[in-house]
């Protein structure tokens, strides 16, 4: 498992009317972390050979974050089989777990946008257990 830590500071525009991070913004944070992780793992040539689209998100909100909080998002890939890959996430504030999430990603060919089997090379790059 090749985990990745992504950090950010909550900005005013991230807040809802209750002055907590808006649920949709948490989803944005997850996507930013996933993209940053992929960009650190894969070469430009590999990134040009495959694209990822979301099929499903599952987010469990355990506690809230507010303005100025420094959040750490840890993400890793649990599985990669066929055309599907499951990525997990945890968002923490000062060590306190705020959010647990999973996203099912589908790999696609960048030209046709049709599903594309995840190669052994990509599984290795992602650090999928058992590969």
Can you walk through the features of this model?
The protein is α+β, with helices and mostly antiparallel strands and 131 residues long. The chain has helices at 23-41, 44-49, 120-126; strands spanning 4-9, 51-61, 70-81, 84-93, 96-108. It has a 5-stranded antiparallel sheet. The N and C termini lie close together (10 Å).
Overall outline: elongated
Oligomeric state: single chain
> Helical proportion?
10-25%
- Proportion in β-strands: 35-45%
Major sheet? 5 strands, antiparallel
Radius of gyration: 15 Å
Question: What number is the mean pLDDT?
Answer: 95
Give the CA-CA distance, first to last residue. Answer: 10 Å
Order of the strands making up the biggest sheet: 1-3-4-5-2
Q: How many strands in all? A: 5
Uncertain segments are: none
SSE succession: EHHEEEEH
Alpha-beta classification: alpha+beta
Give the count of helical stretches.
3
List keywords for this structure.
24% helix, 131 residues, 40% strand, 5-stranded antiparallel sheet, alpha+beta, 5 strands, elongated
């Amino acid at each position: 498992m090749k985990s990745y830590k992504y950090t950010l500071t909550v900005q005013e525009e991230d807040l809802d009317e209750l002055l907590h991070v808006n649920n949709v913004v948490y989803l944005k944070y997850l996507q930013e972390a996933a993209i940053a992780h992929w960009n650190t793992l894969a070469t430009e040539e590999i990134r040009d050979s495959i694209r990822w689209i979301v099929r499903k998100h599952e987010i469990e909100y355990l506690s809230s974050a507010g303005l100025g909080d420094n959040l750490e998002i840890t993400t890793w890939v649990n599985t990669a089989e066929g055309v599907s890959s499951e990525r997990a996430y945890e968002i923490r504030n000062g060590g306190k777990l705020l959010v647990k999430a999973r996203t099912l990603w589908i790999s696609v060919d960048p030209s046709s946008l049709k599903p594309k089997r995840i190669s052994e090379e990509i599984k290795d790059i992602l650090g999928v257990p058992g590969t």
